[in-house]
Amino acid sequence: MTANGGLFRSDLLGLFGFFAVLILSSSFCLGIRSVPDGADLAGLLRFNEAPEYRNGVGCPTLGPSSCDPSLVHIAMTLDSEYLRGSVAAVHSVLKHASCPENVYFHFIAAEFDPASPRVLNRLVRSTFPSLRFSVHIFREDKVINLISSSIRQALENPLNYARNYLGDLLDPCVERVIYLDSDLVVVDDIQKLWSTKLTGSRVIGAPEYCHANFTKYFTPGFWSDPVMSRVFASRRPCYFNTGVMVMDLVRWREGNYRKRIAMWMEIQRQRRIYDLGSLPPFLLVFAGNVESIDHRWNQHGLGGDNVRGSCRSLHPGPVSLLHWSGKGKPWARLDAKTPCPLDHLWEPYDLHHESSMSSKTNDLSSASVAGLSSYL
């Protein structure tokens, strides 16, 4: 851990030798979509209770209200398919937060998920007994008729579009929120990301990647249309990943940005202008007008591309957040015993309960996991 938090690439790579002997066997391979109902799911997907993380010296004392201005608000989706990733993400935030009791999670759950919102609520409460959180129900019919086919079926999940509705789902008193995907872990104090200033009239902040070929996110038909392509005429658009964003919900609501995004989704239904699911509408509305955040806050792409999900290495520089965007997910590859090297950096945050783990893992390995976890 560096003096100013986070991890440097050399620090991470130095841990791989230790992790090589710590690949833990899994008792079964998850098949969430095949679970018939919420009750059965609750019986299959069990999690160990997380450690109790307490505030450090200097943290403000909060009342019971979710509108307290000293709270750090984080929004995440919560569903049966990515539940294991969501739990690990929450665990990582709490572990590294200077004021973990002042973090408030807003979980967005689909109305018709195989696990009901009530079951998901119970799972979160049993895993994090003192966590401040609420579960907001997202009605998929709000967006289902706007979704077009994508290059990967997972990108068509209506819950991917829930971030568009945060201004409506969250209480009006929540004026600012960090949106996080479920396939990531935070290895730094979330307060640092929360402190990002959105200058001027900017509505969102995110790490930008201006070296990326921006034209590939839209079809040739889009770029050849003189009217549509003119949307970027007064901007210098750069790619950004929507899995990590700081959002000003006051400006979001006032600017009716949900409807601006929906407008482009409607155009997409009539005339195909992109292939990548929920990302391109955000680019069309915000690219070139994003508060740029340090790249350390989204080391993305660790899940490989959207087709093969091949292994990836870290980008150069310090790391505050590891993001397995792409097809491959660390829990699935670990269970299949085909992990990528960086998947072992996700493993210490995994709270998934395996009844036979003690018989499969010797005392030395368990002690090593505990020791290495302190570095992450």
Low-pLDDT residue spans:
12-40, 355-376
Task: Output the helix-strand order.
Answer: HHEHEHEHEEHEEHEEHHHEEHHH
Radius of gyration: 20 Å
> How many extended strands?
11
Sheet with most strands: 7 strands, mixed
InterPro entries: Glyco_trans_8, Glycosyltrans_8_dom-fam, Nucleotide-diphossugar_trans
Subcellular location: Endomembrane system
Organism: Linum tenue
Enzyme class: transferase
Structural notes for this entry:
Mean pLDDT is 83; it is low at 12-40 and 355-376. Strand 1, helix 3 (83-96) and strand 2 form a beta-alpha-beta unit. Helix 9 (257-270) packs across helix 10 (279-286). A 7-stranded mixed beta sheet has the order 3-2-1-4-9-6-10. It is 28% helix and 12% strand. It has 13 helices and 11 strands. It has 376 residues and is an alpha/beta fold. The chain has helices at residues 9-19, 38-44, 83-96, 117-127, 166-169, 190-194, 220-224, 249-254, 257-270, 279-286, 330-335, 357-360, 363-373; strands at 72-77, 103-110, 132-138, 176-180, 184-186, 204-206, 208-209, 239-240, 244-248, 291-292, 321-323. The protein is globular, with a radius of gyration of 20 Å.
